[in-house]
Protein backbone atom coordinates (compact mmCIF):
# COMPACT_ATOMS: atom_id res chain seq x y z
CA UNK A 1 0.00 0.00 0.00
CA UNK A 2 1.85 3.11 1.14
CA UNK A 3 5.56 2.64 1.19
CA UNK A 4 7.53 5.17 3.12
CA UNK A 5 11.09 5.52 1.91
CA UNK A 6 13.64 5.29 4.67
CA UNK A 7 17.29 6.22 4.71
CA UNK A 8 19.62 3.20 5.12
CA UNK A 9 16.73 1.06 6.33
CA UNK A 10 17.01 2.41 9.87
CA UNK A 11 13.49 2.99 11.02
CA UNK A 12 13.50 5.83 13.47
CA UNK A 13 10.55 8.04 14.22
CA UNK A 14 10.76 11.28 16.21
CA UNK A 15 7.72 12.49 18.10
CA UNK A 16 6.74 15.31 20.41
CA UNK A 17 7.65 13.86 23.78
CA UNK A 18 8.44 13.22 26.50
CA UNK A 19 7.09 9.70 27.08
CA UNK A 20 3.32 9.71 27.59
CA UNK A 21 2.18 12.31 25.04
CA UNK A 22 -0.71 11.87 22.64
CA UNK A 23 1.89 12.18 19.93
CA UNK A 24 3.54 9.04 21.31
CA UNK A 25 0.16 7.27 21.19
CA UNK A 26 -0.21 8.34 17.56
CA UNK A 27 3.33 7.13 16.79
CA UNK A 28 2.50 3.74 18.38
CA UNK A 29 -0.69 3.52 16.33
CA UNK A 30 1.36 4.16 13.19
CA UNK A 31 4.17 1.73 13.98
CA UNK A 32 1.73 -1.03 14.94
CA UNK A 33 0.22 -1.10 11.48
CA UNK A 34 3.66 -1.21 9.80
CA UNK A 35 5.44 -4.48 9.04
CA UNK A 36 8.86 -3.29 10.21
CA UNK A 37 10.17 -2.33 13.65
CA UNK A 38 10.40 1.33 14.49
CA UNK A 39 12.46 3.00 17.15
CA UNK A 40 10.52 5.85 18.82
CA UNK A 41 12.56 8.92 19.76
CA UNK A 42 10.94 11.59 21.95
CA UNK A 43 11.79 15.26 21.20
CA UNK A 44 11.31 18.22 23.55
CA UNK A 45 9.50 20.48 21.08
CA UNK A 46 7.72 20.45 17.73
CA UNK A 47 10.70 22.34 16.22
CA UNK A 48 13.05 19.59 17.44
CA UNK A 49 10.92 17.00 15.60
CA UNK A 50 11.15 19.03 12.38
CA UNK A 51 14.91 19.49 12.84
CA UNK A 52 15.69 15.83 13.38
CA UNK A 53 13.74 14.86 10.24
CA UNK A 54 15.36 17.65 8.23
CA UNK A 55 18.88 16.67 9.33
CA UNK A 56 18.20 13.03 8.50
CA UNK A 57 18.68 11.84 12.10
CA UNK A 58 15.33 10.06 11.83
CA UNK A 59 13.30 8.74 8.91
CA UNK A 60 10.01 10.18 10.03
CA UNK A 61 8.66 12.73 12.46
CA UNK A 62 5.19 12.94 13.88
CA UNK A 63 3.57 16.19 14.99
CA UNK A 64 0.03 17.34 15.81
CA UNK A 65 -1.58 19.51 13.12
CA UNK A 66 -5.22 20.03 14.16
CA UNK A 67 -7.82 19.22 16.76
CA UNK A 68 -11.53 18.72 16.15
CA UNK A 69 -12.44 21.24 18.86
CA UNK A 70 -9.56 23.71 18.96
CA UNK A 71 -8.55 23.85 15.29
CA UNK A 72 -5.06 24.07 13.86
CA UNK A 73 -1.76 23.76 15.67
CA UNK A 74 -0.37 27.02 14.32
CA UNK A 75 3.23 26.23 15.13
CA UNK A 76 3.15 23.13 12.93
CA UNK A 77 1.57 25.08 10.06
CA UNK A 78 4.09 27.92 10.36
CA UNK A 79 7.08 25.57 10.44
CA UNK A 80 5.79 23.79 7.33
CA UNK A 81 5.20 27.09 5.53
CA UNK A 82 8.19 29.16 6.55
CA UNK A 83 11.01 27.10 7.97
CA UNK A 84 11.31 23.57 6.62
CA UNK A 85 11.01 22.10 3.16
CA UNK A 86 9.62 18.75 4.33
CA UNK A 87 6.97 16.41 2.97
CA UNK A 88 3.82 15.14 4.64
CA UNK A 89 3.77 11.39 4.03
CA UNK A 90 0.94 10.23 6.23
CA UNK A 91 -1.70 11.18 8.79
CA UNK A 92 -3.12 9.60 11.92
CA UNK A 93 -6.34 10.63 13.62
CA UNK A 94 -6.48 9.81 17.31
CA UNK A 95 -9.46 10.10 19.67
CA UNK A 96 -8.21 12.27 22.51
CA UNK A 97 -9.31 11.75 26.09
CA UNK A 98 -7.96 14.40 28.45
CA UNK A 99 -7.55 13.35 32.08
CA UNK A 100 -6.95 15.36 35.20
CA UNK A 101 -3.86 13.83 36.79
CA UNK A 102 -2.05 14.41 40.02
CA UNK A 103 -0.82 12.53 43.05
CA UNK A 104 -3.22 9.90 44.39
CA UNK A 105 -5.70 11.30 46.91
CA UNK A 106 -5.29 15.01 46.06
CA UNK A 107 -8.53 16.95 46.66
CA UNK A 108 -9.72 18.95 43.65
CA UNK A 109 -10.40 21.99 45.81
CA UNK A 110 -6.77 22.05 47.00
CA UNK A 111 -5.25 22.23 43.49
CA UNK A 112 -3.54 25.60 42.89
CA UNK A 113 -2.26 25.13 39.33
CA UNK A 114 -3.21 23.08 36.28
CA UNK A 115 -0.34 22.49 33.87
CA UNK A 116 -0.71 21.35 30.27
CA UNK A 117 -0.17 22.05 26.59
CA UNK A 118 -2.22 25.10 25.50
CA UNK A 119 -4.39 22.91 23.21
CA UNK A 120 -5.24 20.56 26.09
CA UNK A 121 -6.06 23.48 28.41
CA UNK A 122 -8.33 24.90 25.72
CA UNK A 123 -10.08 21.55 25.19
CA UNK A 124 -10.98 21.46 28.92
CA UNK A 125 -11.74 25.17 29.40
CA UNK A 126 -15.35 24.70 30.57
CA UNK A 127 -14.44 21.85 32.92
CA UNK A 128 -11.68 23.92 34.54
CA UNK A 129 -13.93 26.97 34.95
CA UNK A 130 -16.70 24.83 36.46
CA UNK A 131 -14.68 22.50 38.71
CA UNK A 132 -11.34 24.19 39.40
CA UNK A 133 -12.13 27.92 39.29
CA UNK A 134 -9.36 28.78 41.76
CA UNK A 135 -6.58 26.92 39.96
CA UNK A 136 -4.22 28.83 37.66
CA UNK A 137 -3.83 27.33 34.16
CA UNK A 138 -0.14 27.12 33.13
CA UNK A 139 0.98 26.43 29.56
CA UNK A 140 3.69 23.78 29.08
CA UNK A 141 5.39 22.43 25.92
CA UNK A 142 3.54 19.10 26.07
CA UNK A 143 0.96 17.29 28.18
CA UNK A 144 3.51 14.69 29.31
CA UNK A 145 6.06 17.36 30.28
CA UNK A 146 3.28 18.92 32.37
CA UNK A 147 2.74 15.58 34.16
CA UNK A 148 6.52 15.25 34.70
CA UNK A 149 6.68 18.74 36.25
CA UNK A 150 3.72 17.99 38.54
CA UNK A 151 5.47 14.81 39.71
CA UNK A 152 8.77 16.66 40.34
CA UNK A 153 7.23 19.58 42.23
CA UNK A 154 6.21 19.31 45.85
CA UNK A 155 3.18 21.52 45.13
CA UNK A 156 -0.50 20.61 44.92
CA UNK A 157 -0.59 20.89 41.17
CA UNK A 158 -2.40 18.86 38.54
CA UNK A 159 -1.72 18.18 34.87
CA UNK A 160 -3.99 17.42 31.94
CA UNK A 161 -2.84 14.54 29.79
CA UNK A 162 -2.91 10.84 28.95
CA UNK A 163 -3.38 7.98 31.39
CA UNK A 164 0.01 6.80 30.07
CA UNK A 165 1.66 10.00 31.28
CA UNK A 166 0.11 9.53 34.73
CA UNK A 167 1.54 6.00 34.90
CA UNK A 168 4.94 7.06 33.50
CA UNK A 169 5.46 9.72 36.20
CA UNK A 170 3.94 7.89 39.17
CA UNK A 171 0.73 9.91 39.21
CA UNK A 172 -2.94 8.92 39.23
CA UNK A 173 -5.90 9.85 37.04
CA UNK A 174 -8.05 11.93 39.42
CA UNK A 175 -10.83 12.58 36.89
CA UNK A 176 -10.95 10.82 33.50
CA UNK A 177 -12.30 12.42 30.29
CA UNK A 178 -12.50 16.07 31.29
CA UNK A 179 -12.52 17.34 27.70
CA UNK A 180 -15.52 19.63 27.06
CA UNK A 181 -16.55 17.77 23.90
CA UNK A 182 -16.64 13.99 23.91
CA UNK A 183 -15.81 13.64 20.20
CA UNK A 184 -12.40 15.16 20.70
CA UNK A 185 -9.94 14.03 18.02
CA UNK A 186 -6.48 15.16 17.02
CA UNK A 187 -4.94 14.76 13.60
CA UNK A 188 -1.19 14.12 13.45
CA UNK A 189 0.98 14.22 10.32
CA UNK A 190 4.07 12.23 9.45
CA UNK A 191 6.97 14.29 8.16
CA UNK A 192 9.67 13.02 5.86
CA UNK A 193 12.32 14.28 3.46
CA UNK A 194 10.78 12.08 0.74
CA UNK A 195 7.42 11.79 -0.96
CA UNK A 196 5.30 8.74 -0.13
CA UNK A 197 4.45 6.16 -2.82
CA UNK A 198 0.75 6.13 -2.11
CA UNK A 199 -1.69 5.50 -4.95
CA UNK A 200 -4.94 4.52 -3.22
CA UNK A 201 -7.21 6.45 -0.88
CA UNK A 202 -4.97 9.46 -1.37
CA UNK A 203 -5.21 13.01 -0.29
CA UNK A 204 -2.84 15.84 -1.14
CA UNK A 205 -1.79 18.75 1.06
CA UNK A 206 -0.99 22.05 -0.62
CA UNK A 207 0.36 25.40 0.42
CA UNK A 208 -0.93 28.22 -1.76
CA UNK A 209 0.11 31.84 -1.55
CA UNK A 210 -2.19 34.33 -3.26
CA UNK A 211 -1.90 38.10 -3.30
CA UNK A 212 -4.59 40.14 -1.57
CA UNK A 213 -6.56 40.77 -4.76
CA UNK A 214 -10.27 40.43 -5.50
CA UNK A 215 -11.16 36.96 -6.71
CA UNK A 216 -7.67 35.45 -6.33
CA UNK A 217 -8.63 32.83 -3.75
CA UNK A 218 -11.94 32.18 -5.44
CA UNK A 219 -10.13 31.38 -8.71
CA UNK A 220 -7.89 28.92 -6.86
CA UNK A 221 -10.88 27.18 -5.27
CA UNK A 222 -12.80 27.35 -8.55
CA UNK A 223 -10.15 25.21 -10.25
CA UNK A 224 -10.93 22.42 -7.78
CA UNK A 225 -14.71 22.72 -7.91
CA UNK A 226 -14.66 22.86 -11.72
CA UNK A 227 -13.06 19.43 -11.72
CA UNK A 228 -15.11 17.96 -8.89
CA UNK A 229 -12.10 17.76 -6.57
CA UNK A 230 -13.23 17.67 -2.95
CA UNK A 231 -11.54 19.93 -0.38
CA UNK A 232 -11.15 18.36 3.06
CA UNK A 233 -9.57 21.39 4.69
CA UNK A 234 -8.72 25.01 4.11
CA UNK A 235 -6.90 27.09 6.66
CA UNK A 236 -5.06 30.38 6.44
CA UNK A 237 -1.95 31.65 8.17
CA UNK A 238 -0.42 35.10 7.86
CA UNK A 239 2.61 35.29 5.54
CA UNK A 240 4.41 37.53 8.08
CA UNK A 241 5.14 39.94 5.23
CA UNK A 242 2.18 42.28 5.20
CA UNK A 243 -1.16 42.59 6.93
CA UNK A 244 -3.92 40.93 4.90
CA UNK A 245 -1.62 38.45 3.12
CA UNK A 246 -2.07 34.79 3.84
CA UNK A 247 -0.81 31.36 3.03
CA UNK A 248 -3.63 28.89 2.47
CA UNK A 249 -3.23 25.30 3.58
CA UNK A 250 -5.54 23.30 1.34
CA UNK A 251 -6.12 19.55 1.58
CA UNK A 252 -7.82 17.88 -1.35
CA UNK A 253 -8.89 14.34 -2.12
CA UNK A 254 -6.76 12.73 -4.82
CA UNK A 255 -3.18 12.21 -5.93
CA UNK A 256 -0.93 15.07 -7.02
CA UNK A 257 -0.15 13.21 -10.29
CA UNK A 258 -3.77 12.32 -11.08
CA UNK A 259 -4.68 14.09 -14.37
CA UNK A 260 -7.47 16.32 -13.00
CA UNK A 261 -5.41 17.31 -9.91
CA UNK A 262 -2.35 17.97 -12.08
CA UNK A 263 -4.43 20.11 -14.41
CA UNK A 264 -5.95 22.08 -11.51
CA UNK A 265 -2.47 22.69 -10.05
CA UNK A 266 -1.16 23.91 -13.42
CA UNK A 267 -4.03 26.41 -13.63
CA UNK A 268 -3.55 27.52 -10.03
CA UNK A 269 0.13 28.18 -10.67
CA UNK A 270 -0.93 30.83 -13.19
CA UNK A 271 -2.98 32.70 -10.55
CA UNK A 272 -1.11 32.13 -7.30
CA UNK A 273 2.20 33.68 -6.29
CA UNK A 274 3.42 30.29 -5.11
CA UNK A 275 2.13 26.75 -4.83
CA UNK A 276 3.90 24.01 -2.88
CA UNK A 277 2.74 20.42 -2.82
CA UNK A 278 3.36 19.38 0.77
CA UNK A 279 2.65 15.75 -0.03
CA UNK A 280 0.31 13.05 -1.25
CA UNK A 281 -0.43 10.38 1.31
CA UNK A 282 -2.99 7.86 2.41
CA UNK A 283 -6.04 9.43 3.98
CA UNK A 284 -6.96 8.31 7.49
CA UNK A 285 -10.60 8.66 6.47
CA UNK A 286 -11.98 6.61 3.57
CA UNK A 287 -11.88 8.55 0.32
CA UNK A 288 -14.69 8.15 -2.23
CA UNK A 289 -12.37 6.63 -4.83
CA UNK A 290 -11.48 3.90 -2.34
CA UNK A 291 -9.36 1.04 -3.60
CA UNK A 292 -9.45 2.18 -7.19
CA UNK A 293 -6.39 3.50 -8.92
CA UNK A 294 -6.99 7.16 -9.64
CA UNK A 295 -5.09 6.82 -12.90
CA UNK A 296 -7.59 4.46 -14.52
CA UNK A 297 -11.00 6.12 -14.51
CA UNK A 298 -13.90 3.90 -15.57
CA UNK A 299 -16.51 4.81 -18.24
CA UNK A 300 -18.86 5.73 -15.37
CA UNK A 301 -16.25 8.04 -13.82
CA UNK A 302 -15.74 9.83 -17.11
CA UNK A 303 -19.48 10.20 -17.77
CA UNK A 304 -19.97 11.57 -14.28
CA UNK A 305 -17.29 14.12 -15.01
CA UNK A 306 -19.00 15.11 -18.29
CA UNK A 307 -22.34 15.50 -16.46
CA UNK A 308 -20.68 17.82 -13.98
CA UNK A 309 -19.09 19.90 -16.73
CA UNK A 310 -22.46 20.20 -18.52
CA UNK A 311 -24.12 21.37 -15.29
CA UNK A 312 -21.47 24.06 -14.97
CA UNK A 313 -21.94 25.22 -18.58
CA UNK A 314 -25.71 25.65 -17.97
CA UNK A 315 -25.05 27.42 -14.67
CA UNK A 316 -22.77 29.89 -16.47
CA UNK A 317 -25.24 30.41 -19.33
CA UNK A 318 -27.90 31.28 -16.72
CA UNK A 319 -25.53 33.85 -15.21
CA UNK A 320 -24.75 35.23 -18.67
CA UNK A 321 -28.48 35.66 -19.34
CA UNK A 322 -29.01 37.65 -16.14
CA UNK A 323 -25.98 39.85 -16.85
CA UNK A 324 -27.00 40.52 -20.46
CA UNK A 325 -30.43 41.45 -19.13
CA UNK A 326 -28.83 44.13 -16.91
CA UNK A 327 -26.83 45.43 -19.89
CA UNK A 328 -30.24 45.80 -21.60
CA UNK A 329 -31.04 48.61 -19.13
CA UNK A 330 -28.38 50.72 -20.85
CA UNK A 331 -29.81 50.15 -24.34
CA UNK A 332 -32.15 52.41 -26.26
CA UNK A 333 -34.66 51.47 -28.96
CA UNK A 334 -32.91 50.80 -32.27
CA UNK A 335 -29.35 50.35 -30.91
CA UNK A 336 -29.40 47.01 -29.22
CA UNK A 337 -26.87 45.13 -31.33
CA UNK A 338 -23.20 46.11 -30.95
CA UNK A 339 -21.27 44.34 -33.76
CA UNK A 340 -17.90 45.82 -32.69
CA UNK A 341 -18.28 44.47 -29.16
CA UNK A 342 -19.33 41.08 -30.56
CA UNK A 343 -16.27 40.80 -32.81
CA UNK A 344 -13.92 41.80 -29.96
CA UNK A 345 -15.51 39.17 -27.69
CA UNK A 346 -15.26 36.55 -30.41
CA UNK A 347 -11.64 37.32 -31.23
CA UNK A 348 -10.69 36.93 -27.56
CA UNK A 349 -12.70 33.71 -27.19
CA UNK A 350 -11.19 32.11 -30.30
CA UNK A 351 -7.70 32.66 -28.86
CA UNK A 352 -8.73 31.31 -25.47
CA UNK A 353 -10.35 28.26 -27.09
CA UNK A 354 -7.09 27.49 -28.87
CA UNK A 355 -5.14 27.66 -25.58
CA UNK A 356 -7.71 25.51 -23.75
CA UNK A 357 -7.83 22.84 -26.44
CA UNK A 358 -11.17 23.64 -28.08
CA UNK A 359 -11.87 24.25 -31.79
CA UNK A 360 -12.12 28.06 -32.44
CA UNK A 361 -14.40 27.53 -35.46
CA UNK A 362 -16.94 25.75 -33.27
CA UNK A 363 -16.72 28.66 -30.83
CA UNK A 364 -17.55 31.08 -33.67
CA UNK A 365 -20.62 29.04 -34.64
CA UNK A 366 -21.85 28.64 -31.04
CA UNK A 367 -21.35 32.32 -30.22
CA UNK A 368 -23.17 33.49 -33.36
CA UNK A 369 -26.20 31.57 -32.08
CA UNK A 370 -25.71 32.95 -28.55
CA UNK A 371 -25.30 36.57 -29.67
CA UNK A 372 -28.51 36.34 -31.75
CA UNK A 373 -30.34 34.89 -28.77
CA UNK A 374 -29.08 37.52 -26.31
CA UNK A 375 -29.71 40.42 -28.68
CA UNK A 376 -33.31 39.22 -29.16
CA UNK A 377 -33.76 39.05 -25.36
CA UNK A 378 -32.54 42.62 -25.03
CA UNK A 379 -34.68 43.69 -27.97
CA UNK A 380 -37.81 42.31 -26.29
CA UNK A 381 -36.88 44.13 -23.08
CA UNK A 382 -36.28 47.44 -24.84
CA UNK A 383 -39.48 47.10 -26.94
CA UNK A 384 -41.59 46.35 -23.88
CA UNK A 385 -40.07 49.38 -22.11
CA UNK A 386 -39.36 47.42 -18.86
C1 LIG B 1 -24.54 42.23 -23.95
C2 LIG B 1 -24.52 43.16 -24.86
O1 LIG B 1 -25.46 43.25 -25.87
C3 LIG B 1 -25.40 42.51 -27.08
C4 LIG B 1 -25.05 41.13 -26.77
C5 LIG B 1 -23.75 40.73 -26.65
C6 LIG B 1 -23.37 39.46 -25.98
O2 LIG B 1 -24.22 38.59 -25.87
O3 LIG B 1 -22.21 39.34 -25.51
C7 LIG B 1 -22.76 41.60 -27.12
C8 LIG B 1 -23.02 42.75 -27.73
C9 LIG B 1 -24.40 43.17 -28.03
O4 LIG B 1 -24.67 42.82 -29.36
C10 LIG B 1 -23.50 44.25 -24.82
O5 LIG B 1 -23.70 45.26 -25.48
O6 LIG B 1 -22.51 44.08 -24.08
Salient structural properties:
single chain, 386 residues, alpha/beta, D-Maltodextrin-Binding Protein, domain 2, Alpha-Beta Plaits, Chorismate Mutase Domain, subunit A, six-stranded mixed beta sheet, 12 helices, 24% strand, disordered N terminus, binds ligand ISJ
Topology summary:
Blueprint: E1 12-16, H1 22-33, E2 39-43, H2 46-54, E3 60-67, E4 71-72, H3 74-83, E5 87-95, E6 99-102, E7 113-116, H4 118-123, H5 125-131, E8 136-139, H6 143-152, E9 157-161, H7 163-168, E10 172-175, E11 185-192, E12 202-210, H8 216-226, E13 231-238, E14 246-253, H9 259-271, E15 274-282, H10 299-328, H11 339-356, H12 360-384
Parallel strand pairs: 1-2, 1-3, 7-8, 7-9
Antiparallel strand pairs: 3-4, 3-11, 5-11, 6-9, 6-10, 12-14, 12-15, 13-14
Helix pairs in contact: 8-9, 10-12, 11-12
The structure holds the ligand C=C(O[C@@H]1C=C(C(=O)O)C=C[C@H]1O)C(=O)O.
Structure notes:
This protein is α/β, with parallel strands linked by helices and 386 residues long. Among the domains are: 99-178, D-Maltodextrin-Binding Protein, domain 2 (3-Layer(aba) Sandwich), CATH 3.40.190.10; 199-295, Alpha-Beta Plaits (2-Layer Sandwich), CATH 3.30.70; 299-384, Chorismate Mutase Domain, subunit A, CATH 1.20.59. It has twelve helices and 15 strands. The chain has helices at 22-33, 46-54, 74-83, 118-123, 125-131, 143-152, 163-168, 216-226, 259-271, 299-328, 339-356, 360-384; strands at residues 12-16, 39-43, 60-67, 71-72, 87-95, 99-102, 113-116, 136-139, 157-161, 172-175, 185-192, 202-210, 231-238, 246-253, 274-282. Strands 1, 2, 3, 4, 5 and 11 form a six-stranded mixed β-sheet that branches. A five-stranded mixed β-sheet has the order 8-7-9-6-10. The protein has a four-stranded antiparallel β-sheet with strand order 13-14-12-15, with helices on both faces. Helix 8 (216-226) runs antiparallel to helix 9 (259-271), helix 10 (299-328) runs parallel beside helix 12 (360-384) and helix 11 packs antiparallel against helix 12 (360-384). It starts with 11 loop residues before the first strand and ends with a helix. 32% of the residues are buried. The structure holds the ligand C=C(O[C@@H]1C=C(C(=O)O)C=C[C@H]1O)C(=O)O.
Amino acid sequence: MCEIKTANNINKIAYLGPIGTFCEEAACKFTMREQVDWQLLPCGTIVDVFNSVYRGEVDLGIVPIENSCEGSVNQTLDLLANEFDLKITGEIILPVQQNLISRQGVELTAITRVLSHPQALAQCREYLEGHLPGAEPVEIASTAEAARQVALSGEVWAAIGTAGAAAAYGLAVLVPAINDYSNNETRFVLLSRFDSDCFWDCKTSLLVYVLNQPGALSRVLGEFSLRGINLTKIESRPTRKKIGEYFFFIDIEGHRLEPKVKEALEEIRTVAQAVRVLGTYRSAVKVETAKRSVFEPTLDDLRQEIDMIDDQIIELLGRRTRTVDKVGNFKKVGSVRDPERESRVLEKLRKLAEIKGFDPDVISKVYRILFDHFVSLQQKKVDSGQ
